[in-house]
Amino acid sequence: MVTVAVVGAGAWGRNHIRVFSEIPRARLKYVCDTDASKLVSAGRFYGQAVAVRDVEVLLGDPEVQGVVIASSAISHYALSKAALLARKDVLVEKPMALRVEEAEEIVKLAQDHERVLMVGHLLIYHPVVSRLKEMIASGELGKIHYLYTQRVNLGVIRQDENALWSFAPHDLSVILHILGEKPISVSTHGASYIQKGIEDVVFVSLRFGDGKMANIHLSWLDPHKVRRITLVGSKKMVVFDDMEVSEKLKIYDKGVGSPTYETYSEYLSLRFGDITIPNIKMVEPLKAQAEHFIHCIETRERPKTPGEDGLEVVKILVAAQQSLNEKGVPVSLL
Fold it and tell me: CATH code for 2-115?
């Protein structure tokens, strides 16, 4: 059995507390938060675990093998560093740090101390994302022309970060994962309507070396709750709608054929085929992620979402923020 501790008992931290309490191979020994009221409200989730306000208590306990960091983003770097120096394996929520240099330091610390460093890129553990990656890798969709994602809702409005830093790690991690390549530049536009200096709506545009584009729409100021990814390939197109209860993935056998003659576009053939809804066994991504963390601690296996991937996401976030500050000027990622 693997002994773990969760740092952060806020809304998302409580979800981690719940899933680690449910895993038979895990023993949740500590729940930590500096805010006593959060520990009280999370009490019903952590059973026999000990509630503490000082992280040094769990870091100094030799029984604790893994530390889950689900506190505010600004604390991720310092807590990850402290846990790694205490020779604990770490699962840190996204983003793993707010500066590239900090993320690089965490990755190197994990390597130097031979510790598991896993980043909470939750959607990588979603069965539909796994299917998307398989479809792209197998060539079923053909050449990927472009893709776009939408992550919008009315709320929750943050005061400590903008919509880019709050939402984009989800979409960036998925894009990097399913495409298996890194973008060469990023351009970002956004606006602040509710709180001065904190963008409520953000549009991110990524460009890849072979001409692919990926656009990301992020907002907490929108009438609809949308969690959708659309991919357009030369053979097929797919839509992953995570708000759908059962039909989360739809595969469209649609496309544009090459012209028979070297002439005008009217000779292009449009193909309207069937819409397929594959039967995909659903699992809770957060629980799958937690079980994978336990597995990596036991086997010393490299995580599916290693620190290096978290570093790449932070690099793009920092460049995207730079572009946002410069009114959309493209920033190179090379």
Answer: 3.40.50.720
